Amino acid sequence: MSETTVETLGPEALLAWCAAHGVPVRLLRPGVPTPTVPEAAAAVGVAPERVLKSLVLWVDGVPTLVIAAGEDRLVYPRLAGAFGVSRRRVRLASADEALELTGFPVGAMPPFGHRRPLPTWVDAARVRPGLRVVAGGGARDALLDLTTDDLLRATDARSARLTDADPDVGGDDAVAATARTAASDPSGSPA
After folding, report:
1. What domains appear along the chain, each with residue ranges and CATH number?
2. Where are the alpha helices (DSSP H) in 75-145?
3. Rounded to two decimals, what is the model's pTM?
4. H/E element holding 182?
């Protein structure tokens, strides 16, 4: 039995997708690996709540993308309730499954531009309109700088409380910190 190699997409493919779909983003290359929320936040100088993570799950046999913020943890009973299935019907995709479905490796997963479009959900606690955020940029040393308005438009995501986040904790402080950081750089970069 021969093993099939999955073609990995990268930042160039992601930027081409964004251009073709009219999604304004900036690719950030901070010069260090950014595969985790703390590493990404430190690399570009934003609050962890402004770093989005894109996670591939299997929901009743259907691959689904969930976008959450910071170090918030998925709450499987909330996911199951939002999806209208039992808890046993929801599981995190393996790294190999996520790569095969999206074309991007875990730790670099963007919220869109995948090999095939996935139904997308965002955590309502922190992924709200009107925010500037960073997300996976297609490589473990790349991030996208974008707004949640553009992300929500590009993904046509549904929104529900999906994590353990308290929406009233850290929100305004994180927005203010991100705004201060962006204001200190005339290019508008959160870095």
Report:
1. 11-183 (3.90.960.10)
2. 76-83, 95-102
3. 0.84
4. helix 171-183
d(CA 105, CA 85): 27
For range 87-93, the mean pLDDT: 96
Rounded-to-integer distance, Cα 19 and Cα 66, Å? 23
d(CA 173, CA 2) in angstroms, rounded, equals: 52
Q: 30: number of CA atoms within 13 Å, CB side?
A: 26
Q: What digits encode the pLDDT tens for the residues 34-46?
A: 999 999 999 999 9
Tell me the C-alpha distance between 47 and 86, whole Å: 34
**Residue labelled with tokens 């989005």:** 52
**How many other β-carbons are positioned within 10 Å of the β-carbon of residue 155?**
20
| Helix runs in the chain, H state only | 11-20, 37-44, 76-83, 95-102, 148-155, 171-183
Q: What is the SS3 assignment for 142?
A: coil
pLDDT at 113 over 70: yes
Pick the closest to residue 18 from 98, 138, 182 (CA basis): 138
pLDDT of res. 5: 72
pLDDT tens sequence across 151-181? 999 999 999 999 999 876 554 443 333 333 3
